[in-house]
Amino acid sequence: MARDRETQRIVSLFSEHPGRMPTPDPDPDPSESLWFWDPSLRIYPPDSVPPRSSFVETNQVKRLMEGREERVPLEAFLRPLAGLNLPGQAELERYVHHKYRRNMKRNTLESAVSNGKLFLHFLEQEGRSGVAEIRRDDLEAYVEHEQDRGLKPRTVKHRLACAHTFLNFLIEHGEVDREVLARKIQIKLPEGLPKAIDPEDVRKLLSVIKDVRNRALILVLLRTGMRIGELLGTKEMDVHLKECRIEIPQAEKTEVGRVVYLSEDAQAALHAWMNVRDSQKAFLFYAQGKHKMGYGAARSLFVKYVEKAGLGNKGYTLHCLRHTFASEMLNAGMRLECLQQLLGHTNIQATRHYARLTDKTREEEYFRAMEIIEKEGIHGHYQLDPELQAFLEEEKLLD
Fold this sequence. Notes:
The protein is mainly alpha-helical. The chain has helices at 2-16, 58-65, 74-78, 89-101, 106-125, 136-148, 153-172, 199-207, 212-224, 228-232, 264-276, 295-308, 319-331, 336-343, 348-358, 360-375, 386-394, and strands spanning 239-240, 245-248, 258-261.
C-alpha cells in the first residue's frame, strides 16, 4: 500500500512537471519503498516518514539507472570467431547462441567463446574436419596438450570443463557420440589451506587505515565475507544501515542472492562513509572521477595499507579478508550450515575447507591423546581392529 501511494504521488508530481523524467522502478519487489539516502540524516528514515524532497530529482533517476548495463548483442560475443574457419565453428556459434538465450552472464558467454575457440584450434591441429569425428582420445590429448604448455592444473581443469559442457550440448543434439563422455576425465587439484590473516596482523592493518572510504571498504569485506566483486557491485539501495545488513541481489559467482550482516565496527565505518560520499553515485564505493571503483583500484589500496602496516612479506591479498571472516566465524562457534549461507557457497564442501583450518575438536583430541602418551606412555603391543585394518588396506590408507 505504501508503494502504491508513493507511485501515485510521483505520477501526480510529474504531471505538474512534464519536463522531469519518471522514476524507474529499482526493484520489482512490491514491499520495497522508494526512499533515497539523505546524507543529512544519521539513519535511513522509517517507512512512515516521507522523503524530504517534494519531488524526485532527475539526477536521482540517473543515479538509479547508473551502472545498469544494457544487454550486449550476441554478435559482440561471436566477434572473436569472425573470419575463422575452424572445424565445428558453426556448432560452437549455435552453442553460444543457446547460452545467450538462457540469459547466461557475460563472463560465461565470453568464456564459452574463448575456451571453445581454443578447443576447436586443437581439433584442427589434430586433423579433425568436424565435431562428428571427435573421439575420447582427443579429450585426453587436449588435456596433455594444455599441461605441456605449463598451464596450472586449475586452468586445465576449467578448460576441460568448458569442453565437456560444449560436448554435452552436441551429444544432446545427436552430433557427437555419447561414448566420448561416457567416463569423464578427472583432474585432481591440490587442496591447500585457506590463507587467513593472523588476528594480530588484522589489528595492525586496521590501525593504519584512516581514510573514511577505505576503512569502510576493508571493514565491510572483513566483517561480511563478501567477495570483492560483490562489494564493488553493491549499490546504495542495497545497503540497509538501520537493519545492519547488505543485500546481494545476485552473487558474483553463483548468481544466487543472499543477505550479509554488518558488525558494529563495520556499521560505524560505513555510516561515516555514507555521510560524506557523493549521494548522486549509484554504487556504494567509487573511485575519483568514476561512478564505480574497479578491482585494480581496490587491490592497490589494500596493498598500500598492507605495506604501511609492515605486512608486505606475508602474501596477504584482498581475498584473504574473506578467508579471515570464515575462520573467525568458525572459531567463534558458528555452525557450518550458517557460514555456508553467509559466504554464498552452493556446496557445503567448499565451506568445509575452513573447518580444516579451525577444527577445535580435532585440536583438543590431539592434545588430550598426546597428554596420555607423554605422561603415561603406551604399554604392550599396538592393536588395530581387524575390520578397520581391512578397510584401510582396501582404501590404501596404510601405504
